[in-house]
Design goal:
It contains 15 helices and no strands. The chain is mostly helical. The longest helix is centred in the C-terminal third of the chain and has 24 residues. The mean pLDDT is about 90.
């Protein structure tokens, strides 16, 4: 346990530094224009999620990723009992108290990362959707409490947007995830389009792959549309940070048909200058609606 605690503290410091240097991150531009108290809380949530990602994505040699995740599950429980075990827990607890952040959503994020340790592929979309909910929608449910909202329907928005963002990430990062031994495209979809697991592992780009990607692209688009439809007008201004994220990720998704879905040889991204412009435009629109 002592080694897990030491590793945990090292990860916290690294996650904080990563946020401060996160100009390359889509999240950075979404949260840049938040008021200071909300930005501080988002930074802590980001650091928490980032360190969990690193636990499951880094080489596990010489460490126990499951034990590290268990440490953070216990730390979340401790935060809600008012007795965190770490300096970072103390910091996170202050945001939890200030914004009444939901405990179950934090635990769902941990569970999502634990799924990454247990599963290397998902048979059905229903299985994948459960993972995406825990890995992304749960984060959204935390963030909207920080942003502030009036309508209960905004929680539906957070869930749909989280699914859209995670599905876009899956398509964008297909090559990198395969290199880590993970397949996030539902195996039932591969079978439907006659594209084998070995084809995917070999980065085989062919007609069945293109048809498969068109199908997955349309599914991701559908969740962006569901998110837009489920955001009440009364909360649109307060959700400007989430709307910035939505716009940037939709632009990434829109690039995929332009490269004929060849994500094996092309890296989909939005230029920094464009991300900043999108952030400013959406923020200014939100100010005019207040």
């Amino acid at each position: 346990m002592a080694s897990s605690v030491t590793t945990a503290m090292e990860r916290v410091r690294g996650a904080r530094r990563q946020f401060e240097r996160a100009a390359a991150s889509n999240f950075y531009y979404s949260f840049l224009l938040l008021p200071s108290a909300k930005r501080k809380a988002i930074k802590d949530v980001y650091a928490f999620c980032r360190l969990l990602d690193d636990i499951v994505d880094e080489d596990p040699t010489g460490r126990d990723p499951a034990a590290e995740l268990a440490y953070w599950r216990d730390e979340i429980e401790a935060c809600y009992q008012g007795c965190p075990m770490s300096d970072f827990g103390e910091r996170l607890m202050s945001s939890i108290v200030e914004f009444t952040l939901p405990k179950q959503a934090f635990l769902d994020v941990v569970e999502g990362m634990e799924m990454d340790l247990r599963w290397q592929s998902y048979q059905t979309f229903a299985d994948l959707r459960e993972y995406c909910y825990r890995a992304a929608s749960a984060v959204g449910l935390i963030c909207i409490e920080i942003f502030g909202y009036e309508s209960a329907r905004t929680r539906e928005y957070a869930v749909n947007l989280g699914l859209a963002l995670q599905l876009t990430n899956i398509l964008r990062d297909l090559k990198e995830d395969i290199a880590r031994g993970r397949i996030y495209l539902p195996l039932e979809d591969l079978e439907r389009f006659g594209y084998g697991e070995q084809d995917l592992r070999a980065n085989q780009y062919n007609a069945p792959f293109i048809e498969l990607m068109k199908f997955e692209h349309a599914r991701a688009q559908s969740y962006f549309l569901k998110a837009t439809a489920s955001l009440p007008e009364t909360d649109r201004a307060s959700m400007f940070a989430a709307e910035i994220m939505c716009a940037i990720y939709r632009e990434m998704l829109d690039q995929m048909p332009e490269i004929q879905f060849d994500v094996f040889r092309n890296r989909v991204s939005v230029k920094k200058s464009r991300r900043l412009r999108v952030a400013l435009e959406i923020w200014l629109r939100s100010r005019l609606k207040r």
